[in-house]
Protein 1
Amino acid sequence: MLNYILRRVAYAIPISLGVTIFCFALVYLAPGDPLTRLLPDDATAETIALIKAAYGFDKPIPIQYLNWLGRALTGDLGQSIQTNRAVADEVLIALGNTIIISTAAVILAFTLAFVMGTVAAYYNGGVADRVATSVSVLGVSIPNYWFGIVLIIIFAVNLRWLPATGMGPGGSEGFSIWEWSSVKFAILPVLTMAMVPIGIIMRSTRSAVSEVLSQDFVQTLRAKGMGEAAVLRHAVRNALPGVLAVMGLQFGYLMGGSILIETIFTWPGTGSLLNQAILNRDIPVLQGTILVLALIFVMTNLAVDILQTAVDPRIKRG
Amino acid sequence: MTDNAYVARVENLEVKFVSRESTTKAVNGVSFTLKEGEVLSIIGESGSGKSVSMRALMRLLPSKAKIGGEVEVNGKDVLKMSGRELTRMRGKEVSMIFQEPMTALDPVYTVGDQIAETVMRHEGVSKEEGLKRALELLEFVRVPSAERRLKAYPFELSGGLRQRAMIAMALSCRPSLLLADEPTTALDATVQIQVLILLRKLQKEMGMGVIFVTHDLGVAAQIADKVAVMYAGRIVEMGPVRDLLRNPLHPYTQGMLASTVHGQDRNTDIEAIPGSPPDMRNEIRGCAFAPRCKHATELCRTTEPPETSPGEGRAVRCHLVSGMTGAEQDAPAYA
Ligand SMILES: Nc1ncnc2c1ncn2[C@@H]1O[C@H](COP(=O)(O)OP(=O)(O)O)[C@@H](O)[C@H]1O
Ligand code: SF4
Ligand SMILES: [Mg+2]
């Protein structure tokens, strides 16, 4: 088991390095020169050279990469071209805001989808199954930003129960998950975010549990006198590894935030940050945000892999 | 239990699978009784309704299965039991072991946990006590290094050991009736014999009634006190094992015996009788075996043969036998 974990961690290292190379290369992949924004249109050649040297753009690319990586490892992701603030600070604040809604969406989506998927599988073909299947088809096929806009129209514009946008008067600093005055701002974005994973996870839970319920050992359980609750417990336990893999992927997506959803609700998370960085061609912010999000994704996958091994004795350990 | 009390009594059992497209009449009027400590072997080709009959005894059939007739276990009417009564009976009074020990055990629970679970369920003991009992049971069914096997997952055991674990689980609450549905069919020949000997030994030790399903007459001969031969959802012949094997009366039994004597591989289905069993979705007129029977007459094709008793403890459904007088029954004219 320990061996397996160490090996998985070892695999994650080259992937993470690949991620850093990609993020670094963004500066060169992005159209246009990252310096043009910093420079007045009539800048002389000397000024340009001076600035280039100041930013390290005059060195060979591998050296630039190593310098950049060295700084990134110490938490220095450079300065935002737009605001001049440290990129690391901006990303951290945005990430905190995203995590507020994505964690809530994860909890909501995962429990609801898992319970509904299991119930649907158990009552295969029954009313509960049909309701759950319809919900999941809707969840997967409706565009989530459209769903978000519909929620705003219903709950913010027509009913006036919930605010449409922002994080509340206190903004990022004043937000408290324990106070309704803050929480009400998060409800619509959370519902919108949860929609797609609810559909996907419910569908895969349903198929995994129903596959397990058709296996021979379920009959053995009944033959030895186990009640239906115990049968369901065994079924869920068997379906768990497969469902966890799907959940892990969705978890990774949700933690990354959503440009569309955060933009619709003007929620100042990583999605909004990315959106602004793209609009302003703020390459350091873009670089830093993508780097952090990609590393979170790699780490989530690693955690899911390890978790899966822990719950499935059939995966060869060694 | 008194001497004449039955562990199992089945009277005119009928099982139909009803779906929108078709109705499969899997079991059509099966009757038999089993006394304490008795071993009944049910033999027949695949699809003849053996497994469905076994499952009907525990009501382990899907809801689309319509069960008719009478089923009694230890004098209690199984078909009238509530869900609670059923779960209390299953695994305690009646246990079942299956053909495929690999798929019959839960792959993600240890063998010990699965045995302990049964004991905990029926005897309300703690997990610790359950595991202790599981260890004793594994030793009881002669699993070597039982302590280590207790913590093993099914995929870590060989087929023979898995089946032993399955047997340990089935016997954990000392049932008075064990239903064994082809428990050795999926095993290698040598392992098959070991498991068979073990089952016979445990059966004698515990004095339980056993219904042993197989499609192998050789296996039946080794373990059974009496044999019932099934064809197309009916018992076509039944009797004490010696009598029946020495002097089979039904043409189907005769054909099966002939193929077992000459056949080399006991695991293959009986092939010596030409033709195949009828499709159970169609209505069957007359004797179900008629299309394959070389003695078939017009009467056979139109009228279902009644059950007759040509001797002590014997029953046959065949016009050839019922058409004869008592004196001639031991030497049928067609034989
Ligand atoms: N769950 C089911 N649904 C529909 N038909 C079934 C079901 N189980 C068994 N049958 C049918 O019942 C008949 C008897 O099957 P079975 O008892 O399994 O035969 P066997 O003698 O090989 O054990 C077969 O024709 C089979 O197709
Ligand atoms: S009743 Fe007729 S067809 Fe059926 S087994 Fe007897 S002789 Fe053959
Ligand atoms: Mg069968």
Protein 2
Amino acid sequence: MSVLIFIDQSEGHIKKASLEALSYGVKVAENLGVGAEGVALGSASEDLAALGQYGVKKIYHVNKATFNHLDAQAFTSVIAEVAQSSGAKVIIFSNNVDGKAIAPGLSVKLKAALVSGAVALPDTANGFVVKKTVFSGKAFANISLNTDVKIIALNPNSYPVSATGSGTAEVVSFDVKTDATKVKVTAVNKVEGEVPLSEADIVVSGGRGLKGPENWGMIEELAKLLGAATACSRPVADAHWRPHHEHVGQTGLAIAPNLYIAIGISGAIQHLAGVNRSKTIVVINKDPEAPFFKAADYGIVGDAFGVVPKLIEEIKKVKGVA
Amino acid sequence: MKILVCISKAPDTTTKIAFTDNNTKFAADAVQWIINPYDEWYALVRAIELKEKDASAVIHLVTVGEADAEPVIRKALALGGDEAIRINASSQDSYYIASQIAEVAKQGAYDLILTGKETIDYNGSCIGGMVAELLNLPYVSLATKLLLNGSNAVITREIEGGEEVCDVALPVLVSCQKGMAEARIPNMRGIMAARTRPLKVVEPVAADNLTSIVSFELPPAKAGVKLVPADNPAELVRLLHEEAKVF
Ligand SMILES: Cc1cc2nc3c(=O)[nH]c(=O)nc-3n(C[C@H](O)[C@H](O)[C@H](O)COP(=O)(O)OP(=O)(O)OC[C@H]3O[C@@H](n4cnc5c(N)ncnc54)[C@H](O)[C@@H]3O)c2cc1C
């Protein structure tokens, strides 16, 4: 019996959301009194054994280049093989791009109950109940998983990465029967040097109050200074001022960074739905009646074009940047 | 070309979320139901766009729901679609719902099955992947573009920090999100035509529920905003640095 955690990597680099899932899975295993194991697919350039510092004891490595790109069906079948042969009772994913692609198929393949969007550790006092976000962050539901094998997909930014700093994991190469993929990746376009929005600790977001795409310079400068990702409201993406993937909200990406800075965004209910799990919210808006202030921790009522450049100067002072 | 589009009803995005029966049920009484935006804006509209390029294409819509789901599936038919199927069941378990859709899909032998990336109520993002696995089909999730090229689909999908293009032979199941299609609204002609398009009701097959909802809860209320004067951003920086400790 064990907890099996999917190690999600891209080009050999282990994603931050996956380290969260790893830390979470190790804790789940500890609470259940069983061991924690990992499974990684594709070539790995990072040292998998070093993941032992997060508390995982063993990592099954399916080291085949065919798995360097995601094929949900093939990944599902490989992970099912590993789960069955290792006797995993709980399987953990990050509820990120890959987790959303693989976990549902695995649920069918193993006939294992799945909760996606988990935000807390399972409550095993009475069965196996996991809290997840529903209504795009406007509420939570406690879901009971009613099968022997269980799958949890953990929302990014819901569980801290915790490394003990010591220990190495035993890396076992795992050979699978299946290695045929049907989905062929023909091109990858990554925005270089940008922090992926779903993984960002800090997000600087702009709305229609910024008047036009030409005014995003200060948003980008502020984001760069804070090591933040940039986001926007829906009308901004609809007007093609910013790329689609920056759209956050009920019908865009739902995020939960440590700090969300909303500039020139009114705070419509659909927008709030995607950002209200942020730990700290700062709102800069010239309208004191803007609904966003009700959801904010800190606010400045003022003109963004006056406030933001001054804010940048002040942050530079704190950070010691010239 | 036969396309199946999965349609779910969802509460209007302005719905105030509340629960009844000791926080075990969503207070659905006064709720205005809409087509789940991802299903409508991206999956359905993309199917319609594909049919506009290939008049021989046939679009079927499927929903799992009781009679109260009919206005929503009718509205979807008014946008486009040749026929709708309502599976007369209700469940909050994704596996149960996916099993129902898979049954309909098997009988229809579709080349392309489209879903929205998630519903805006339960945010499971599960149905597409489950139906694909039940049908033993490849699954491409979080797609932002979908083109057909003979018997293949060329799909752009989201990855962390960018996107990638992939090529897959039909049949395939695709979950759709922003970027997929141009916005459109139903016109009078569509609404009239929808009345004559068949809406079949089928009974569910036996399937298990793997999960159940124990209770709901609302997030704790915010303590209230601390306002800082516009001419003193230094104070905001101090608060963020020393009090909230976010940088
Ligand atoms: C079904 C549905 C789904 C939706 N989904 C989403 C979603 O996922 N995400 C989303 O964001 N929206 C969504 N919306 C749209 C949402 O209702 C709002 O229309 C939208 O969020 C408003 O964007 P905004 O705040 O940028 O613009 P506006 O509402 O126009 O607000 C602009 C704000 O900027 C302020 N402002 C103006 N000038 C300045 C200045 N110089 N300095 C400082 N402040 C200034 C104004 O006071 C105002 O508060 C959805 C709507 C529907 C119907």
